[in-house]
Specification:
- The complex is a heterodimer of chains A (about 375) and B (about 325).
- In chain A, about 25% of the residues lie in helices and about 30% in strands.
- Chain A has about 375 residues and is of the alpha+beta class.
- Chain B is mainly α.
- Chain B has 3 domains: about 45 residues, no CATH class; about 35 residues, no CATH class; about 200 residues, Orthogonal Bundle (MetI-like fold), CATH 1.10.3720.
- Chain B has 16 helices and 2 strands.
- The chains are: A alpha+beta (about 375), B mainly alpha (about 325).
Chain lengths: ~375, ~325
């Protein structure tokens, strides 16, 4: 096992820049997820780590060794493809043993290793079956088996659960994380599904247009989004944004949104007057008639334990997550009370989050 | 509700199935009757083969096959009577027509030439075609589209259009009437078909298979050999059969460029007519034997051939 260090990694296809100066470190044994919409460069980054694409610039270090320009087969990594790439002309046993065969391992040893791996993944009863008859989840397990049988330096997975049914997917998310807890393999996992990312990752990098927008733990990314894109991409429903104008002064604790005063975490920088946005997670909204921030109920989505209520304000619809027990009528006027300590402020132009007291911890954590 | 089965929107109706059946049987008859006629003629005696009205029922004889494999000379009855007893069926049949067997005919060596040239050129075309199709399918080849068009353009005219330059070239190069020359020629004609056909098949095989193998420690060539090739067998078989049918049946170039040692069966068979009258049973016998290899090959690979014809119509 080894750490992966990516430095100023860049990839251009002609005019199109797929990955721009990416920097991140995946520590030894960490489960790292690259998250982003399709076409954001996450798969390209993964393929560069694997050696399937050569970067236009930058460096990739695997366990301290520069492998940037090395061939895929010389990197000692394993890759799980979205469509699994199980060889249809081989049975499960041969598929799993295929990487060992490349190393010229004796067939008796291959046999033992394959059987050990199959037991670990609970697919030992399938070893002599043809891969084409397997169910989605089992194919996934065979693909994983082929990856772990060689005990490589790290695992790379490209949306491996993308083609599975929801039911299987939840199961496999669980199994993957459990497997990781058992073998502690450095893993880079690419997905566009935030639920997968949040439930499995130690660290997440959120990518957009070839740029890593934020790198951090799932908690950091959810609670303290670095950009409006991240705030909008993570969370279901995503973060609400309310526009407000004017600058911000260091030390101020209050802003005015739609004529209502809203207390926010203490601002840590001076911002010249510009279009700004207040970011509010749906669960940080309560209904309180005393609040001057008002809107009319537009509709509700009942989810059992909670309900998502769409409220039409002067600045469009915002969504609140409130207890399911609350009885609300469409058209009813409500006041919105916001949890002050959990609010984010963004510069609309750049999408960047304003430094506030809420980010103090994050900064400390990174430097400390 | 009636008891009849519910109508399916997509399944063909009974009537259209019947019409299709009649059409297929009709087409099969049109194609098969000449073949049956040739097969029957090969077992007729020369008088039966030219009898009018044509004989459907006749006494089968293998005289045609005897004549095909031998050369004969006419002798006087006295000479024949002076010979010892006939050594075999053919000997006996020939003597009834006041002839004796002078030696083996050229049919067997010509047939062997056909086998060597057709299978040799098919192997070369498929081998080269597979490798270049893989290259075009997987690598960024500069001007790939233009090159592919250029390759295809070699088939835009009938191959025989270039007969004269090829004839002159071959004469200069000493390739006239050699098996090597014919193999090269048929390979050159077929390789364009092979590249296009196989590129389609290889394009359909996801790259992930080779990528997975290369990450797992194989070189590209090993990955190609172990993961791409086994999945391309259908395409390779279909391509091989198309190439083989062309090379096996080719007449014009063979007639032009071969006359002796490298002559193939197609130009040889008509020459039988010239030797000692119109020996239709011998011609029919030669044709029947000539049909056998391609028939066996086609039957063995019929599934792949069908897939080759309907290729692209249905995605897996």
């Amino acid at each position: 096992m080894a750490e992966i260090r990516v430095q100023n990694l860049r990839k251009a296809f002609g005019e199109f820049v797929a990955v721009q100066d990416s920097n991140f470190v995946v520590e030894n044994g960490e489960f790292f997820v690259m998250l982003g919409p399709s076409g954001c460069g996450k798969t390209t980054t993964l393929r560069m780590i694997a050696g399937l694409e050569l970067p236009t610039g930058g460096k990739i270090l695997l366990g301290g060794e520069d492998v940037t320009m090395r061939r895929a087969r010389e990197r000692d990594i394993a890759f799980v493809f979205q469509l699994f790439a199980l060889y249809p002309h081989m049975n499960v046993r041969k598929n799993i043993g295929f990487p060992l065969l490349a190393q010229g391992m004796a067939s008796a040893e291959i046999r033992t290793r394959v059987e050990e791996t199959a037991k670990l993944l609970r697919i030992d009863h399938l070893l002599d079956k043809s891969v084409s008859g397997l169910a989605g989840g089992d194919r996934q397990r065979v693909a994983l088996g082929r990856a772990i049988v060689r005990r490589p330096k790290c695992f790379l997975m490209d949306e491996p659960l993308g083609t599975l049914d929801t039911e299987f997917r939840d199961l496999m998310v669980h199994e993957l994380r459990e497997l990781h807890n058992r073998i502690h393999a450095t893993t880079v996992y690419v997905t566009h599904d935030q639920m997968e990312a949040m439930s499995m990752a130690d660290k997440i990098a959120v990518m957009n247009h070839g740029v890593i927008e934020q790198f951090g733990s799932p908690r950091e990314i959810y609670d303290r989004p670095a950009t409006m894109f991240v705030a909008d991409f993570i969370g279901s429903p995503p973060m609400n944004f309310l526009r407000f104008g004017g600058g911000l002064a260091r030390g101020s604790k209050e802003i005015v949104v739609q004529g209502a005063r809203v207390t926010v975490p203490e601002v840590r920088e001076d911002i010249a007057p510009a279009d700004m946005a207040l970011g509010i997670r749906p669960e940080h909204i309560r209904f309180d008639d005393a609040s001057k921030l008002r809107g009319a109920i537009y509709g509700t989505e009942y989810l059992g334990t909670t309900q998502i209520v769409a409220v039409e304000t002067a600045d469009g619809i915002i969504k609140a997550r409130v207890p399911a027990g609350l009885h609300l009528n469409t058209g009813e006027q409500v006041g919105l009370a916001l949890s002050s300590a959990r609010l984010s402020l963004f510069e609309k132009g750049t999408g960047r989050a304003v430094k506030t007291a809420m980010y103090d911890q994050a900064v400390e954590a990174r430097h400390g | 509700m009636s008891l009849t089965a519910a109508h399916s929107v997509v399944a063909p109706s009974t009537n259209s199935k019947r019409i299709a059946g009649v059409l297929v049987v009709g087409y099969a008859l049109i194609s098969i009757v000449p073949l049956l006629w040739i097969f029957a003629t090969s077992f007729k005696t020369p008088p039966d083969s030219i009898a009018y009205p044509p004989k459907i029922v006749f006494q089968p004889s293998i005289e045609g096959y005897c004549n095909l494999f031998t050369t004969r000379t006419r002798q006087t009855p006295e000479y024949i009577n002076a010979l010892g007893p006939a050594t075999g069926f053919c000997d006996e049949t020939v003597r009834k027509r006041n002839m004796v067997i002078a030696g083996p005919s050229n049919f067997l060596p010509r047939f062997v030439n056909s086998l060597i040239i057709a299978f040799g050129s098919t192997f070369c075309a498929v081998f080269l075609g597979t490798l270049s199709a893989y290259g075009f399918s997987r690598f960024k080849v500069p001007l790939a589209d233009d090159l592919l068009f250029f390759i295809l353009s070699t088939r835009m005219m009938p191959p025989i259009a270039v007969a004269i330059p090829i004839y002159l070239m071959y004469r200069e190069l000493g390739l006239s009437d050699t098996a090597l020359g014919m193999i090269l020629l048929y390979t050159a004609v077929n390789v364009s078909l092979a590249v296009w056909l196989l590129k389609g098949f290889i394009d359909e095989i996801p790259r992930e298979y080779e990528e997975a193998a290369m990450i797992d420690g194989y070189t590209r060539l090993q990955a190609f050999w172990r993961t791409v090739l086994p999945q391309a067998t259908t395409g390779i078989a279909a391509t091989a059969i198309f190439c083989l049918i062309f090379a096996w049946n080719e007449y014009a170039f063979a007639a032009l460029l071969t006359s002796g040692t490298a002559q193939t069966a197609p130009p040889f068979i008509p020459t039988i007519i010239g030797e000692g009258g119109q020996d239709w049973p011998a011609v029919a016998a030669g044709t029947t034997i000539f049909l056998v290899p391609i028939l066996v090959f086609t039957i063995l690979l019929r599934k792949q051939l069908l897939r080759g014809i309907t290729f692209g119509a249905v995605r897996k």
